[in-house]
Amino acid sequence: MRVLDLFDLSGKVSIVTGGGRGLGLAMAEGLAEASSDVVVCSSKEQNCREAAKRIRQLGVEAAGVKCDITNPSDISRLRDFVLQKFGQIDILINNSGATWGAPTEDYPIEGWKRVINVNVTGTFLCSQIIGKVMIEAGGGKIINVSSIFGGVGAPSNVMDAIAYNTSKGAIDAFTKDLAVKWAKHHIHVNAIAPAFIETNMTRATMEKGETHILPHVPIGRFGLPEDLKGAVLFLSSAASDYITGTILFVDGGYRAM
Question: Is 107 annotated in the active site?
Fold first, then answer.
């Protein structure tokens, strides 16, 4: 197979959670640009429908579905919808997430529970329910979205969100363990760990912390959502068929400092 053909996703069907905007939308567009049909889902149905309309302009089939990833019934309905419409599920991007910023000594338990439930339990439930389809089909690709702070601490003036950072450490462990357990089913499980990626939601925070953050980014700039496209395509495609259980940092060199 020619090397460029390894990245061709023609005939594949992808699900991107949290795909209605921001990082999820960029990743969904990257998969579509490689010719995968795409289903985006999140708790905000209108965002998903608008995203699907935008993705269809890239020449593939797309759909937007409302889904609460902490609700197994919602995920099962998503699975059934995709199978009815497309007949298969080849790629799952676990991107949906939540955060809550507060000083650790005053961190509210409701914030802790919310972040852990969405980021960890939601990722587990999506992987379990959609993964059963992949097991029956004989293989698939699961990509979890972690963070550079999944494996290191963060100063309060950079990232004062201990539940979020804890959840991403759990995602790293989950990725490695699931990769080992499901390798026998030819399911590749990897994660991407972005650094500071500029979106409408993060822009104000990044501007506030710019003087503390950028000196630690060797490339010298914040990331853009488009910077995730190549990493996600690589881990979703045949180009990564001998890679599983890996955390791929997309961080401008932050973790190398």
Answer: no
